[in-house]
Each structure stands twice: as C-alpha cells, then as structure tokens.
Amino acid sequence: MAITVLLVDDHPVVRTGLRALFDNSDDVQVVGEAASGEEAIALAEHLHPDVVLCDLRLGDGIDGVETTAALRAQQPAPAVIILTTFDRDVEILRAIEAGAAGYLLKDVSPATIVSSLKEAARGGMVLAPEMAKRVVDGMRHPRPRLTEREMEVLRLLGTGASNREIARELFVTEATVKTHLVHLFSKLNVESRAKAVSVARETGLL
Amino acid sequence: MAITVLLVDDHPVVRTGLRALFDNSDDVQVVGEAASGEEAIALAEHLHPDVVLCDLRLGDGIDGVETTAALRAQQPAPAVIILTTFDRDVEILRAIEAGAAGYLLKDVSPATIVSSLKEAARGGMVLAPEMAKRVVDGMRHPRPRLTEREMEVLRLLGTGASNREIARELFVTEATVKTHLVHLFSKLNVESRAKAVSVARETGLL
DNA sequence: CTCCTCCTCAACCCTTTGGTTGAGACGGAT
DNA sequence: ATCCGTCTCAACCAAAGGGTTGAGGAGGAG
C-alpha cells in the first residue's frame, strides 16, 4: 500500500515539483495539495494522509509551525515533515516542539525527500545531521524565556522606537519601559538596545 | 519554433516543478538546468536560450543579480526573468538595473509564468502591477547614496556596536564616527541609530 | 494565606548619543 | 588654480539611554 501524502506550500511551482517527483515513485501517492495552513488542516481532516509535507512560510495565514500543531492534534495524526528554505535555529526548534517528524531544506536531493517521507510514515524522525546538531545545541543553550510584555518591547525596539515611543505605544510610562529594557538586557546578556536587537535577530527571537 | 529556456534555481524541487510546468506547453522548451549562477553562465554560453528563468538566491555562489548582469553581457544576450520568493525593493531595482526583463514572485500561477516567459522572448518587459509601482517609486525616491565609509558605519551599527566600538573597529576617533552618523541620519531621514538600522533593513541597504 | 512572577512606577545618577559649528587634509573634476 | 566631496577631528550642549534601588498591585501556585 502506497504512502499517502498531502503537499502544503503556497508556491504552485513547488507543489508541481513535488508532485512530479512523487509521480515517479510507486510507493508514494499524493492525495492532495494545499496552498495555506488552513486549507491543509481542513483537507487532512478528510483525507487522513500518512504524511504531510509542509513549508514553513505559507503566505498571509498561519505558518507551518501552527499548521503542524493543528495537524498533530487530529485523529489519526499524520506525520508532518517541514520542507523549507530557511534554517534558522528557532524555526527548527519550534517545528520539532510542535510535533514535526522532520525538517528538510529545499536544497536537498529529491531522493532524500522520498526516503525521508518513507521514514516518517514508519513513525521515525528525519533530521539531517546538521539539523540534529542544532536541536541538541538548542536544548543545551535554552533561549531566554521572555515575558509577553518583554516581547512587545523587543518588537518595538526592533523598529527603532525610542523609550518614549514604546511607552506611548504600550500605554505605560517611560519608567516601565526602562524596567522592561533592563530585564531584557539581562536576559539577552547585552548592555544596549542596539545589541539587544542584533542578538534577538541572530537567535531568531525577532 | 518553441521558445528555449534555461532554468536556474538551487532547489531541485523548484527546477522539477518548472520543468513539469513547461512540459505541458508546446511552445516552451526547457533546454537546460543550472543550480548556481556560475553554472548558468557557462551553460547559456553554449545553449543560447531565448530566456533564462533565474532565482535571486542561489546558495553560496553569485546571486541572481550578478548572474543576470553576466548573462546580459553575452552575445546573443538571453532575456532574463527573475523568479523568486523575495520582494524587497532593492532586489527588484537591482535586478532591473542589471538588465532583467521581468520580476516574478513564486506564488504566481503557472499560467502567468508561461505567458511572462513568452512576453520576455518577444523582447518585452514583464512586471506585475505592484512590482511596476515599486520600480517607479524607487525611481522617484532614489535610495540615498551612502559613501563607502558610511556603509561601514551602518553595517557596524547593525551589529549593535556603540560609537566607541565603531571607532575602534574603523581606526578613527569617536568624533569621526559621530560625524558619519549625523550624515547617515540625514541621508536616511531618521533621528536615531536604532531607526537608522530599522529603515536600512527595510529598504534593503543592510 | 503566602510565595512568586509579572507588570507597573519613581527618583537618582552617570554615560552615551545626537546636533552644532568649525576646520584641516586629500583627491578628483572643471 | 579652484571647487567639491570625502574623511578626519575637536569642543560643546541638550537629550536620551542605561543602572540602581525601592515599591505597590494583580494573579497564580503551593
């Protein structure tokens, strides 16, 4: 019995490519395509694919991570493999946490995609060695847990907002903003707003 | 006589998708595939395709813009269409300046790709309305021309460096850094280092 | 109830930044 | 020879940012 797979990617070209790729394989059958996370969730509800091959960026709607979480909550839950061009640490970690069975970059060979898919259908995990390394690194160096408010401040910080502007935006006083900033600096291990934005970008917090 | 096209994309999946797409079209014939800019330039030299369909990001080597410039310098010069996921203003402007006949986003329909390709083969330009708008906007609001030194300062600014750190890095005094910064702020039309980084990122200067 | 986290705010101090003016040196263009 | 753009630097001032201490209220967990 062939493995059934649902393709999720907002780029028609990529979907076409994947479909063409699996058409040459006897044991993989594409049972559906979705251009958004919402569509994917709805389709999976009916199609019950063995595996969902999902991009991380999905246009305007929900992203691949949220889609993965929703899919994994279904009964029966399909295996989800993330197939994307981006390889930032956070993305990978978030995807794994959400229940993804694998994380592939789009520059891998078609053969790898097919074999990964089979592995996932068997219930296995699919992580390229470099990916696996990042996962354990991510576990070892846990990303600081920022509170919701701190994240809001960080986001505004990224736009170049001054303390006064941040205060106005969040309906608090500058004193409060400064307090959040001090906590933020401490958690990110930096000593200036500029560096905070810089490291937040690097680590993917922003 | 069918239009000959060379596909350039570092993702095998995308190339497969495009190839599958054109296989259904009688008047378009894929004559080659390249996974890098260097490979594309070498192949075009021999194949003389009518059109080159090229991604902007091409892995580690030269990018799509440089590839476009090199291709347009060949005799006869193929038409070049940029097909990418990114739509930052600078990228588009740079691609057009380099001689691209079109700029498409990967989320367009397959039909659009085919028709755009034909248009380019006829010597025409292919710009989606929103793209065209950005181009004229880009012409109207010319990106500020920063000097080399100012760019270095801007780059360091992006890493969150303080004036002191920038000064050390560039082997000048803080006074000089401040002078550069004032010029930078004026050219970018901002009033703080944070905002400077923010708009530089938005406009693609950084 | 009490401990703890998070969010809020204030007063104080010192450092860094941003803005201004002015100026010397160098190289290329006219 | 002269102008112009670029890079360099200095001195000065006002504003913003960063660091500290302390503290009150709201809400959840034990």
From TrEMBL, chains A, B:
UniProt entry keywords in alphabetical sequence: DNA-binding, Phosphoprotein, Transcription, Transcription regulation
Gene3D superfamilies: 3.40.50.2300
Domain Response regulatory: 4-121
SMART domains named among the record's database cross-references: HTH_LUXR (SM00421), REC (SM00448)
Gene Ontology molecular-function annotations: DNA binding
GO biological process: phosphorelay signal transduction system; regulation of DNA-templated transcription
UniProt modified residues of type 4-aspartylphosphate: 55
InterPro entries given in the database record: CheY-like_superfamily (IPR011006), NreC/VraR/RcsB-like_REC (IPR058245), Sig_transdc_resp-reg_C-effctor (IPR016032), Sig_transdc_resp-reg_receiver (IPR001789), Tscrpt_reg_LuxR_C (IPR000792), WalR-like (IPR039420)
Entry-linked SUPFAM superfamilies: C-terminal effector domain of the bipartite response regulators, CheY-like
HTH luxR-type domain location: 139-204
Name of one Pfam family that matches: GerE
PANTHER family named in the record: TRANSCRIPTIONAL REGULATORY PROTEIN NARL-RELATED, TWO-COMPONENT RESPONSE REGULATOR
Record-given protein name: DNA-binding response regulator, NarL/FixJ family, contains REC and HTH domains
Upper classification of the organism: Bacteria, Bacillati, Actinomycetota, Actinomycetes, Micrococcales
